[in-house]
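Aim 2 progress update. The chain analyzed this quarter is reproduced below.
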Amino acid sequence: METMLSIMICISLMIIFPQSAQSFLDVGGEYGASWLKEHGEEPKIEETRNNLWNWGSAPKGFEIYNGTVYPPGYAPSWYHPYYAANSTPIIINSNAGNGQQTADNTGLDPWLTAQLSGRPVTLISEPKGVLF
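Predicted structure tokens:
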């Protein structure tokens, strides 16, 4: 059984090694120059009529600003920095609702609230229950 295996390995090596030496093709010199003369033309580039600006809008999730496509979250913001006219912070307490606020505060964005109001925003979010 071992002799049969060693014979099979020797035969397979004799078949494999001469094949790899014969499979290389020299593409330099006259052959390469003649091939480039026959097939070396560069493809002509045509401007397609159906590009981004003709078919409508930016891809889903992306934004276009001044002819540039921005990935989600990187487009220039239309909310410009607003310097605080009043330094009293707006306190958003997500734990206890007072009589003035009946809605849930989880949907409020503190950054957007600060940009639109011009005041700093403090978000209070304490966990319910005992930690330790």
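Strands lie at 63-65, 68-70, 90-93, 121-124. Helices lie at 2-22, 29-39, 52-55, 110-117. These observations will guide the mutagenesis experiments scheduled for the next reporting period.
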